[in-house]
Every structure is written in structure tokens, then in C-alpha cells.
Specification:
95 residues, 4-stranded antiparallel sheet, globular
């Protein structure tokens, strides 16, 4: 993924995930970068950032999403992710 808006380095949370962008008139699969971070000095929120590789996409201009989460929102999201990850692990263990 070249020409990114996000900085991707050794500290990036997930530098390659499969993603789908959906709109009223399109559905488009791509790879994406996901990062969770907070400001180094005086952090006041957690940033959850997502950028899809859109070099070949005609519907979406180059952009990234940046969600600003309170600490409680970040913990709620983390707990929900853990819950769903555990469900998948359990389902795969039963197979």
C-alpha cells in the first residue's frame, strides 16, 4: 500500500488486514492499515485509525478514518473485541 495518509512503521497496530468498503452502489475489497494510538504529550483520547488502500478504487477518494475514543470507550471496544475473538476461538476448537 503506497502513498498512505497514515504513517506505517514498526509501532503500527495492524499493518495489513482484509477490509471491505460498502456503499449504496458498490462493494469493494481491499487491504487496510489499522492503528490505535494516543498523543505522546498530554493525551486526552485514544485514536483508532483505519485506512484502506484505494489506488484502484473509483468510488472513494484517498482518505482515512480517525475515531477519537474516550478511555471508557476504548476499554468497551477492547472488551467487545476480546469477547468476539473468544467466541471464534471456541467455535474453531469445537470443529
Amino acid at each position: 500500500m503506497s502513498d498512505r495518509l497514515m504513517t506505517v512503521n514498526a509501532y503500527t497496530t495492524l499493518d495489513y488486514v482484509e477490509a471491505v468498503a460498502k456503499g449504496a452502489a458498490f462493494e469493494w475489497e481491499s487491504v487496510a492499515v489499522v492503528n490505535a494510538t494516543a498523543d505522546t504529550e498530554d493525551p486526552d483520547c485514544v485514536h483508532l485509525q483505519l485506512e484502506l488502500d484505494n489506488l484502484a478504487e473509483e468510488y472513494l477518494p484517498k482518505h482515512m478514518e480517525d475515531l477519537e475514543l474516550t478511555p471508557d470507550q476504548a476499554r468497551a471496544l477492547a472488551a467487545d473485541l476480546e469477547k468476539h475473538a473468544d467466541r471464534i476461538d471456541d467455535a474453531q476448537a469445537d470443529e
